[in-house]
Amino acid sequence: MVLNILAAVSQWERETIGERTAEAMAYKRRQREYTGGAPPYGWRLAADGVHLDPHADEQAIIRDAVALKAAGLSLRKIGAHLAARGLLPRQGQSWNPKTVRDLLQATVV
């Protein structure tokens, strides 16, 4: 019985730590602070190494993609339109529907 209680308390603590971590990371993202990994599309790491600054060229691409989506174009057609203008993702490959979907969900300033 004691082991079951200890196991339940341990599981509760693990879940609580996960919730606190998720909340802290969400707060940092709202404050435009760097949370690790590659900065999101449309953003770059600021000189202070802590905050994110808008990347003007990528922000313009995001706005173009949002306008094309509002005009009723599919994800594939948006990617083809951007590629035809010589605008490529950071990896330099072609726009696939998932990349375009992520682009449309990116934060615009």
What topology does this entry show?
Layout: H1 2-30, E1 43-45, E2 52-54, H2 56-70, H3 75-84, H4 97-104
Helix pairs in contact: 2-3, 3-4
Key descriptive features of the protein:
single chain; 109 residues; mainly alpha; 2 domains; two-stranded antiparallel ribbon; 4 helices; 57% helix
Report the principal-axis shape.
elongated
In whole angstroms, the N-to-C terminal distance is 56 Å
Task: Report the uncertain regions.
Answer: none
Q: State the major sheet.
A: 2 strands, antiparallel
Structural class: mainly alpha
Structure overview:
By secondary structure, the chain is mainly alpha-helical. It has 2 domains: 1-31; 38-109, no CATH class. 57% of the residues lie in helices and 6% in strands. The protein has helices at 2-30, 56-70, 75-84, 97-104; strands at 43-45, 52-54. Strand 1 and strand 2 form a beta hairpin. Helix 2 (56-70) crosses helix 3 and helix 3 packs across helix 4 (97-104). It is elongated and about 65 Å long.
Quick structural overview:
With 109 residues, the chain is mostly helical. Helix content is 57%, strand content 6%. It folds into 2 domains: 1-31; 38-109, no CATH class.
